[in-house]
């Protein structure tokens, strides 16, 4: 079995944003000879997340509204008491982003069959930045034969 690793860097916009990263996976897979295996997609941040879902603009807006309802930025959160923690000078008040991320997941696994991603017709791999703008890293790991 072979294993290949790659970090993709995504520069994000302010606020909650959702990025379709499926093509990054396809492009990375194309650089390998893997025909059967899997791609692990792992977000390396605590205020980001991943999901496999439909990349449809109105649905993506619905998701943002849903996440804001779960963890409104305007609520009072202990994590936002920055004066009580050791933090960098530019540390944002982002407890709501951490809570949103916990409702999603930090990783997804996509099967590879006959050299292609085994995603369904409407499925895409979506990366969520819940606390932008920032530079974000996503680890891709392909394993198989």
TrEMBL record:
Stored PANTHER family: SECONDARY THIAMINE-PHOSPHATE SYNTHASE ENZYME, UNCHARACTERIZED PROTEIN YJBQ-RELATED
Any one Pfam family match given in the protein's UniProt record, by short name: YjbQ
PROSITE patterns reported in the protein's UniProt record: UPF0047 (PS01314)
Protein name (database record): Secondary thiamine-phosphate synthase enzyme
InterPro entries: UPF0047_YjbQ-like, YjbQ-like_sf
């Amino acid at each position: 079995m072979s294993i290949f690793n790659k970090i993709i860097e995504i520069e994000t916009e302010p606020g909650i944003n959702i990025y379709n990263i499926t093509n990054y996976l396809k492009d990375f897979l194309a650089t390998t000879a893997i025909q059967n295996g899997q791609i692990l997609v792992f977000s390396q941040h605590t205020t980001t997340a991943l999901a496999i879902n439909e990349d449809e603009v109105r649905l993506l807006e619905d998701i943002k509204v849903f996440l804001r309802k779960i963890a409104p930025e305007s609520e009072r959160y202990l994590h936002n008491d920055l004066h009580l923690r050791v933090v960098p000078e530019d540390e944002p008040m982002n407890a709501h982003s951490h809570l949103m991320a916990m409702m999603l997941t930090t990783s997804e696994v996509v099967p590879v069959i006959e050299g292609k991603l085994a995603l369904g017709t409407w499925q895409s791999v979506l990366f969520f930045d819940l606390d932008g703008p920032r530079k974000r890293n996503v680890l891709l790991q392909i394993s198989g034969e």
